[in-house]
Amino acid sequence: MDNMLSSESSILENVKSLHGQALTSQPTQDDEQALSYYTQALNRIRSTEDTNQDIDQHEYDILLNIYDIYIKQEHHLPLAKVYIDIALLIAHKLRQQDKMAACLDKRDSIKISQRDYDTAFVDYHQSLGRKLKRKKFGGSSVYRAYFKMGKVFYDQCMYDNALSYYLKSLQIQLPELGHQHDDVASTYYNVGNVYRKQGKYDDALAMYEKSLQIRLLLLGDKHVDVASTYNNMGLVYDDQGKYDDALAMYDKSLQIRLLLLGDKHVDVASTYHNIGVVYRSQGKYDDALAMYDKSLQIRLPLLGHQHVDVASTYNNMGNVFRSQGKYDDALAMHDKSLQIRLSLLGHQHVDVASTYHNMGIVYDDQGKYDDAVSFYQRAVSILVNAGLENHPELVKIIYDNIANCYDKQNRYDDAVAMRQRSNNIGSTLRQTATSDQTSTTLDHQSQDTSLSGESADDNTSIAPELHSLKQQSEQASNPTDSDGHSHAQQSHDQVLKEKQYFNAYMQALQQGSCNNKVIRAMYTGPECVGKSSIITVFTQQQLVKRQDPTQVANQSDKMVHLQVYKIKDRTMHSLHVIWENNVHEIVQSQYESIISNHHKSKSTDQQTNMQHLSINDQHGSAGIQVHLKSTSQQNTPTSTNQPITATTLAHQDVTHTILTSPSGPTISSTNINLSQQQHQTFFHYYYPSWLNKSKDDSQYAKIWDFGGQSIYHITHQPFLSTNSMYILVFNINQNIHDKVVARDGHLLSRTYLQSMQEWLTSIISGDSSQDKVAATIGNDQVEYSLPIVILVASHGDCITDKQERIDRFKNFEKELITMMPRYKSNIYSSRIVFNCNPDDNSQSTRAEREQCSLDLHNIMKSFVQSLPFMRNPIPIGWYIMATILHTSTDTNSSQDQVVSSIINQIRATRVRKIMQIQEIQSLAKELGLYESDDELTAMLSYLHDLGEIIFCRNGDEYGVIITDVDWLLRIFRAIIQLQDYESGILQMQSLYITASETGKISIQYINHVLAPHELDVETKKSIINLMETYNILCRIESDNDEEDCQYFVPYLLRPDAKPFDLSQYHVSDVLYIGYEYDDIPYIPDGIYYCLLSSCLKQWNNTKVELYYRCAKFYLTNNHHYIIIKKDNSHIALQYCYQKLDSSTFATLLKSAVEISIYKNRPQDIVKEKLSSLINNRMPKFKGAIIRYYVRCSRCDCLTSIDNNQPYDGNLVQCQNEGCNMFFESQSVKDWIYQREECANSRPQQAECGLQTYKEDTYKECFDIIATELDIKDLFCLSMKLNLSHKSVSEVIDSNIRSYDKTYKILALWWDQAGQQADLRQIVVTLESMDKKLIAEKIVTKLQSST
User: What does the pLDDT look like over 1190-1235, one tens digit per residue?
Assistant: First the structure.
């Protein structure tokens, strides 16, 4: 026994000696010498079979010291794990809970470094459980354990859970340590990191500020932890786009680090790296590269060439080179990054996928689409293998990029298939809170995260892998002891949280809303000015040579390729993901309120009431079983904030019985009037994405590219919105008075000024408000009227001299404002000139494009942040209805398959592409989302403003909703853009020619062009009614069969149509109708064409004739034509009637026309209709005074005559300054003064109708015609008298004598004309048929009968 004790004592002394020598070596950084001593000590211990507790204690300490050496080097992590595992066995042998906990903590550090979060979290649970069991453990051990568990969640981007554990740590720290302790500062610091990741930037800065004040107090202003705080405050400012503030923080951090650590330290490298990220965001590419190079020169010697941080720097340098158009350099940098990542991380790591993605973008920019697709496919293969649920947004982006490549290669079927894959990720997108830019590269920032103040760079290119919903719920539960809690307890916690969210959702339906975050940004302007190219550059895509002109609809699958981008950083996003984020924000607010109220008002009977909760496990996760019954009654709404056992919460047709539970928040037993469990359905549609979603305070713009061709002006109104922002583009290389140049190079009939006038009037006149907004752009405070129109220029490549560009821009701006002074307060002149020449991709050009894009982005950002529309509260129900009404459905993952199939069933059975407002109202009521008619109208108007639907209101109760805007655009294109049928059906060729030459299309043509769309009869009828509502087309009423009806479509007329030949007509002077220049400076084509359609309805006949911007209507019963012509800002009127050889006939006709003008006053009809159109379609100018004008013969300007009565006959005084001369106006005589002559002479003149003649005169006249007229001329006479073809055919084909046929035709005319019948019309008609002899006999008979 004594020998054994002596042996153990000898071994112990030897081990102590070696252990001491090793500890002496470690402070001198001689790790190899220390390892040698540690190894000898372990060998000495293992040389004996029997050990005592003292020897075991030393072995444990030695193993931990060896671990501390190996943990420093990443490639020695496996060895570190071996030694800590052995140490854990020794701790178990010693039965010391504190040592077991310490081993688990250290093993967890290895697992976190290896991204093995699952087992790391298990270790932390076990470690914490042991510490909680041992009373002797101090609070510091427990709060540090909570802190580390929070770090695990943080590294997995599970920020809500991370925040929960950080706050638990803080709750222990504050009572034990007080408010002025370094560990408290570190916790505030890491809470700030969470808030930053959640996008709660103000909260993040508040936490960093608290941490900073403590650290400054305890550590002074020259400490590495203070530098780390400044660094992360810089990250927040960078995220907010406050680049100057970010640089200021980084500079403070850098100065401290340089002072304390020297210029060769990894933390200094991280600061240089972050400054480079800011410079790239500012477009300062050379400065960014300089910073990255500084970072690299430090990292390479310290970390070696094979380190992930070095790979990140290479990655970011590649991104800068790509922005500069240096594609070879970009690929070289990305390849360096790739080789390092492959070596360290393997071939299936998400960072490797990130590199492949970035390389694919470079090849895409170069037009090397095969190479681009190859790299995109490599990236997506890795991400899919890693688990689609982990990175759905990035996978969707890559699928879209591949589809775009296929489009550029004309592989349209492959593109459609790839976009279908992209669309199928819809439900997976709900697993992440962020969206990345479709064509963006991934920059990496270096963030400092620590408890002790040591810094660690976060250079992951993609968020770390996320766990499934079930795993998330399990990890969020309370820590277990060594045995762990039961699975039933975990399920209870999951159900409890889900129940709390469900009740928050139900409360949100009643009172929840958040500010609007999306606005539509519409790029407009004349055709072929480069709108699409500017959008391509602005959204950082590759320019395409010979790009097709934008159309309301083109030949591709999508008619308008809409894009949504974040105002803060220009990254591209999905609108429906944004909506889901908004729903989460609203519910989260209610959820936090519920939790807060629960803590204030727990009641003792909560455990009893849990028996009312029915749990149903669906697809591996707990669900709420809600009992549904039909009801038609509504109950009075009551608050759910009070802790009552049974409360009734009514939401229109929905009744919820609130049941309390141990959690305090309540679960609803719901009665609704649909058998589908739609509230539960919608809740489960959104709920999975809420567990790790952060609040999104960002604002977004939805980009539209609208066609500039004049043919589309008539269709603009359904798609325009007063709550949009407009970017108006013009060609800097053209003068404003030049003719518009078409894509094929030929000159069009209108000028750039006229095109700009069309756009500005269409945009601005639709807003009835007089609101103004103040915005800060640069250092200037500006105030503008709504809507905002930002003026930008294209074709900068044609004007290389910068000063000439500026001068041309100023001249264009000046001419535009001079011609349209009323719009001056709406137009912001950006002075931005884009160079979009696809053949020029030089470094300087790409840098210039990027700078122009940044300038435009900053202008848009300043205005968006000031718009009242962006501050409107949007109820949660609007977002839900928007999801339902959006007819392009997503295919959900298996986790949500049942839920999504129910929602898709609602869409399939209740939502159609075109719906009446009553249908929407009924659907909203059935879904419990209806509040009132006004609220429903407001919701539809909001969705219309965003371009998600088309909402056409016609009267108070009637309204039409188009749920698929793309579909409507295709329909419009099919009808209004004539197809040139060079071959094929002869009938279609004939209809095409007729439409282009006459401005009229038949229902047969409409049926033919709409055939591919497979519309049913009712849908087709609704579409035509919609187009008639907007005066896009106008039906020409006739007695013809429905199958032969025609539509008046004046804008289809070719501009080269021949003008009217009026040489055979007496023509009046011109009378103008319009407004004062300061009131309405321009009447757009759309209004003019609508005026023609409106007049056609008034004077319906088939004899309307057209040429460019001019129409001639024949007033059948009045023997004359009315000519309506657009003359810039006014409507010009003339009337004309036929010249006759016979003076007698001529006198009769002239008299008839003068009386017609006096009696019917067509000028008043046109004036009234124009005024009505202006008031309805241009509400900004509603109430403006419409006037008659004539042209002054002295100054050749128009002058108003409404308040300028003729002094003597046709004498008028000009009202224009500088003239004021009297002149004789033929217009006044023809249109105004003659009415007095007619009125004075009317009693002495015979009335025009047959009833003024002797009783048998009409029979005698008819007898003359029936006797004298050749039967072969009867059909011609019938058509000139505008009789029905069907009625005439029946008479002519009848088996009666010729005399009777003629007499019967005349009787038909008499019956049709009624009181307007005028025998002089018969005389004029016969004269026009060269039947002068018969006409003279009729005149003689009339004269003898008066």
Answer: 999 888 889 888 655 554 567 888 888 888 888 888 888 888 755 4
DSSP 1090-1148: HHHHHHHHHT--TT-EEETTEEEEEEGGGTEEEEEEEETTEEEEEEEEE--S-HHHHHH
- C-beta atoms surrounding 753 within 10 Å: 22
User: CA angle 456-458-461, nearest 5°?
Assistant: 160
Count the Cβ atoms, other than its own, within 10 Å of residue 1063: 7
Token pair 């500088």: residue = 1218
Secondary structure of residue 559 in the 3-state scheme:
coil
d(CA 132, CA 139): 9
d(CA 1135, CA 1154): 10
Residue 163 CA to residue 209 CA, distance in Å, equals 17
Listed range (598-607, 699-708, 786-795, 1166-1175) with the worst mean pLDDT: 598-607
With b for 16 or more beta-carbon neighbours within 10 A and e for fewer, the 344-357 pattern comes to beeeebbbbbbbbb
Other Cβ atoms closer than 10 A to 317: 26
Q: Are 1136 and 1123 in contact (CB under 8 A)?
A: yes
∠ CA(533), CA(537), CA(539), 5° rounding? 115
CA distance 516 to 865: 11
Burial of 1204 (0-12, 13-18, 19+ CB in 10 A): middle
Using alpha carbons only, give the angle 594, 595, 596 rounded to the nearest 5 degrees: 90
Q: How far is residue 796 from each of residues 489, 544, 666, measured CA to CA in Å? A: 68, 17, 63
Report d(CA 679, CA 1278) in Å as an integer: 68
3-state secondary structure of 1034: strand
**Sheet strands (E) in 954-1074:** 959-962, 1000-1002, 1034-1036, 1046-1048, 1065-1067, 1071-1074
What is the model's pTM? 0.55
User: DSSP E strands: which ranges in 81-122?
Assistant: none
Q: Of 712, 756, 710, whose CA–CA distance to 734 is shortest?
A: 756
pLDDT-derived band at 517, boundaries 50, 70, 90: confident
Altogether, the residues listed in the chain come to a count of 1346
Burial of 788-803, coded b for 16+ CB within 10 Å and e otherwise, reads: bbbbbbbbbbebeeee
On the question of a cis peptide bond just before residue 787, with omega within 30 degrees of 0, the verdict is yes
CA–CA gap between residue 801 and residue 798 (Å, rounded):
9
Q: Which residue, 132, 879, 990, is CA-closest to 483?
A: 132
- d(CA 960, CA 3) in angstroms, rounded, equals 103
Task: Please tell me the distance from the alpha carbon of residue 189 to that of residue 229, in angstroms, as a whole number.
Answer: 7
Query: Residue 613: exposed, middle, or buried by beta-carbon count in 10 A (0-12, 13-18, 19+)?
Result: middle
Lookup: tokens for 1320: 């002089």
